[in-house]
Amino acid sequence: MTPAGSGNRETLARAFAVARRGKLWLVPTVLCALVALLLTLLYMGGILNPQGNLRRLPVALVNTDQGPPPAGQQQTLGAQVAQSVVAATPAGTVQWRRLSQAQMQDQLASGKVYGALLIPADFTSSVAALLTPRDTARPVLTVLTNPGLGSLGSSLASQITQRAAHQASLEIGRQLASRATAEGATTTTRTLLGDPITVTTQVGHPIGKHSGLGLTAFYFALLLVLTGFIGGNIINSGVDAGLGYTDNEIGPWHTRRPTVPISRTQTLLLKMLMTAGITVLTTSLLMIAAIGILGMDATHLPLLWIFSYCASLAVGLGVQAINAAFGGIGQVVSMFVFIALALPSSGATIPLHAVPGFYRFLALFEPMRQLSDGVRAILYFDARADAGLTRAWIMIAIGVAVALLFGFAMTRYYDRKGLHRLVARSDATPGETP
Q1: Which pLDDT score, from 0 to 100, does residue 434 have?
Q2: pLDDT, tens digit, for every residue of 313-364?
Q3: pTM to 2 decimal places
Q4: Residue 121, exposed/middle/buried by CB under 10 A (0-12, 13-18, 19+)?
């Protein structure tokens, strides 16, 4: 009987002997290194400098000032403030949209602007009153936020707008101080007039209290992608094990079913049908957990379920197509397509206007951007088509079509070439599965 110590030494010796084979290390080392490098570059590259990468962030500028213009001037002070706000903003960082108040409300409600600056109708008259005994309150500029577009995007717009409004206040203050000096005002009065405008911040388009400060749309869309991605891979592995094309190991238990003769195309069709059926359950459970148990704010529930099902199904079908085309490395490829490239280009946590151009390019077709826009439109913007929902539906349809065409084109090609999944090998050693 072999002593336990001797058996352990033999096990270690055998393991180290196998580990010395260079080819055994090559593929895992290269793949792990590439994944670590690319994930770091992709994720960190998109978030490091949002203000430095800011490009044309849409913000509404609404001037309702009714004047009349101050003596000796042709413009109302509201028009002057509007010009000053645009001039005070670094070129190319903000897209100031000069809108009416009704247009502003519409664009806030459809997620087309991240915020707004509202100049009130009595702005000129309230500023002029500061130099008279009729002065009762300081003039007010109102900054409106849009939390439905995400806390960071709304915060960026708010900060930029507040700074621009403050600069406009200082500019008007210099004009008032000059006039006050000419009229013999006291030093205290001139100091008070130096920054005469109060800038207030309000929510322009409110969302529910259980909306994660505008992040529930992103996390819900992420769950749709993850359930489609993980579920697709589970179905892929389960079907392969059930058909006898891979071993099934759970802990110390190992089984290998008899191989079922089936073509690649038939196998892909089976996996896609199962994906379509199982996604009904996963989508329902996802909504029950998020809305029914955790209390996430949500409206348009039937539409949300249908959209969620189609979105998760599109991801699942894409996973099956990629796995069928790439085989063993399919999971890595689909991870990059649906997770690694998709998350930093989603525009849900950091606006696409504040990321490098590479990510804005990815956002044109990467699924997370399309799905998060659709979910956000349903959750925060009353399911308006122009809030991103129409584009999301179109991209889901395109995604399903591409998955079907690509997947079945590849499997039919492999089948016609006779590239079967299991082929008897003449070099198989005794005891090795061919």
Answers
A1: 37
A2: 999 999 999 999 998 889 999 999 999 999 999 988 899 999 999 999 999 9
A3: 0.87
A4: middle
Q: What is the DSSP string of 294-314?
A: S------HHHHHHHHHHHHHH
User: Would 184 be classed as within a structural domain?
Assistant: yes
433 within a domain of the structure (yes/no): no
Instruction: Please check whether residue 192 lies inside any domain of the structure.
Output: yes
> Mean pLDDT for the chain?
87
**Looking at the structure, do residues 144 and 234 belong to the same domain, yes or no?**
no
DSSP symbol at 238: H
Q: Is the peptide bond before 28 cis (omega within 30 degrees of 0)?
A: no
**Does pLDDT of 191 surpass 80?**
no
Q: Is the pLDDT of residue 193 over 80?
A: no
Q: Number of folded domains in the chain?
A: 2
Tens digits of residue pLDDT in 376-433: 999 999 999 999 999 999 999 999 999 999 999 999 999 999 888 765 444 444 444 4
Same-domain status, 127 and 262: no
Contacts from 411-417 at CB under 8 Å and sequence distance 24+?
411/263, 411/264, 411/265, 411/267, 411/268, 411/324, 411/325, 412/265, 414/264, 415/263, 415/264, 415/265
The CATH number of residue 102's host domain is: 3.40.1710
Report the length, in residues, of the chain: 434
Q: Are residues 342 and 388 in the same domain?
A: yes
Residue with tokens 């205290």: 188
Q: Are residues 375 and 350 in the same domain?
A: yes
Residues 180 and 237 in one domain: no
Residue 186: predicted pLDDT: 52
Judged on CB neighbours under 10 Å (0-12, 13-18, 19+), 234 is middle
SS3 assignment, position 118? strand
Q: Which domain holds residue 367?
A: 212-416
Q: Based on the domain organization, do 184 and 333 belong to the same domain?
A: no
177 shares its domain with 303:
no
End of a domain among 179, 203, 227?
Answer: 203
In whole angstroms, give the CA distance from residue 310 to residue 397: 9
CB-facing half-sphere around the CA of 401: CA atoms within 13 A: 6
Q: Tell me the two tokens of residue 56.
A: 């044309």
Which sign, positive or negative, has the C-alpha torsion 359, 364, 368, 371?
A: positive
User: SS3 for 23?
Assistant: helix
